[in-house]
Amino acid sequence: MADVLIEARGLRKVHAPRGxxxxxxxxxxxxxxxxxxxxxxxxxxxxxGKSTTMRMVAAVSPPSSGRLEILGMDPATHGPQIRAxxxxxxxxxxxDTELTVxxxxxxxxxYFGLPRAVIRERAARLLEFARLADKADExxxxxxxxxxxxxxxARSLVNDPEILLLDEPTTGLDPQARHLLWERLFRLKQQGVxxxxxxxxxxxxxQLCDRIVVMDHGRIVAEGSPRGLIEAHCxxxxxxxxxxxxxxxxxAEKIADTAKGVDARVEVLPDRLLVYxxxxxxxxxxxxxxGVEPLTALVRRAGLEDVFLTLTGxxxxx
Length: 318
Prior knowledge:
Elements: E1 4-15, E2 24-35, E3 39-43, H1 50-57, E4 65-70, H2 75-83, E5 86-89, H3 101-110, H4 116-129, H5 145-156, E6 163-167, H6 175-190, E7 194-199, H7 202-208, E8 211-216, E9 219-224, H8 226-233, E10 237-242, H9 248-261, E11 265-268, E12 273-277, H10 280-289, E13 296-301, H11 304-312
Parallel strand pairs: 3-7, 3-8, 5-6, 6-7
Antiparallel strand pairs: 1-2, 1-4, 8-9, 10-12, 10-13, 11-12
Organism: Actinacidiphila bryophytorum
Keywords: Antibiotic resistance, ATP-binding, Cell membrane, Membrane, Nucleotide-binding, Translocase, Transport
InterPro entries: AAA+_ATPase, ABC_transporter-like_ATP-bd, ABC_transporter-like_CS, ABC_transporter_ATP-binding, P-loop_NTPase
């Protein structure tokens, strides 16, 4: 059995801002464990409690109650020792824009008390890893968003961490930058670094994570591998149908009646209808038999957003 690096039992976080009418329960008693070498993800919409959980794991925000053990230690009493063995990539880049790319790594390494020669060697290696060696002497403010995220990840690895925490690592990046970042993170996992990440992108969770928990309103509503969750909670395929706004309700009623006869399920969203069926083409044929003509029809495989919709009745971007 793989070593357990992070274990939470009944983990809870309550915020009580000054002047607020009542405290807010951001994390509502969750259980999870992360083993060495795996990529573990928290998937959910904004406000689900993902980032709050990450701050507790990073030993910078104490739990309100429950038990949390990281690398065999309690963050309440061993916070500095835990943080020395973690790498952290926050949602927002906190790079020093007045320094060069290389200087950002050199200065950050000093925070861990590393010898200068060690920092210089690691900085050179990490710049190669992040594909930024040719930008080493440029100012950070001249970098693109994708380059800044890669530099932030490189900086988080200066202390050679056992666990890398990534909070929404690709938010705001274009598709090409996202895929390059995924490739770098996959390489880290191959090198044995344990990854813990939050995301509201279903494709990111499917690409990067061995195992995920789906969070909603501070609670875990499902846990498993991406493919296992899809198989457990969804049909194999989904038929997406779009109609003019004034015809959608009538079409939904007709399709719902038809779906009962072909072992399918219909979800009505503001902009489209989703028909969950093992064979999307058969479902489309059944729709056409009703005389309903959609503006567009798309058959696709089910994904993690469908899991979330099935479990919570809303989409990840609600």
